[in-house]
Amino acid sequence: MPRLPPIRDRIRELRRVRAADLVPHPHNWRTHPAGQRTALKCLLAEIGYADALLARELPDGRLQLIDGHLRAETTPKALVPVLVLDLTEAEADKLLVTLDPLAALAGVESQELDTLLDCVQFDRSEVIDALAGEWERAVDDLQRDPPPPETAATPPAVQSPPGDALPSRYCVLIDCENEAQQLTLLERFAAEGLSCRALIA
């Protein structure tokens, strides 16, 4: 994988703007069914605004939304927090088309999700009604299609047999060209705090 160039900070400022004054993006491709709209209203009533909308400044000074269309529609009279981004029109299009799909690529730790759901209480059942299907679908997808290893060359982790008291061990075997390279790697890994040992095959 190529090394990343220096990462630019494209956030110019945090501004509070009347939601109705924000300009919807003409290419916004997300739709919002009734269940989602109801759940958002309930969460806004219960928690309030806890995340900023994303927008870029147009030549006439107005702010064009990139993310947060439903929130702006839901509370048109409210002063909402908006991160004003220093983006061109083309860059805004890239962000618009990737934000939600990129978030959807995240995996699911099903046990942690169950623990969290057991301890969270919502004031309105509409939130659970709207989101329960998404939580269940995420776990079902994980069980049906477990995530692949990071690379094709990475073997799956070896699991301990049932009832084995020893924890699973995750090891990497590196083929060295010669003894000198082996010693160099051992020293480097040891300096990084990794447990390693030499093998000769």
Write the layout of secondary structure elements.
Elements (H helix, E strand, L loop, with lengths): L10 E8 L15 H13 L6 E5 L5 E5 L1 H6 L4 E7 L3 H16 L5 H10 L5 H20 L34 H13 L10
Parallel strand pairs: 2-4
Antiparallel strand pairs: 1-4, 2-3
Helix pairs in contact: 1-5
How would you sum up this structure, described in words?
- This protein is α+β, with helices and mostly antiparallel strands.
- The chain folds into three domains: 11-104, Conserved hypothetical protein from pyrococcus furiosus pfu- 392566-001, ParB domain, CATH 3.90.1530; 110-144, no CATH class; 149-201, no CATH class.
- The chain contains six helices and four strands.
- It has helices at 34-46, 69-74, 89-104, 110-119, 125-144, 179-191; strands spanning 11-18, 53-57, 63-67, 79-85.
- A four-stranded mixed beta sheet has the order 1-4-2-3.
- α1 crosses α5.
- The protein is extended, with a radius of gyration of 24 Å.
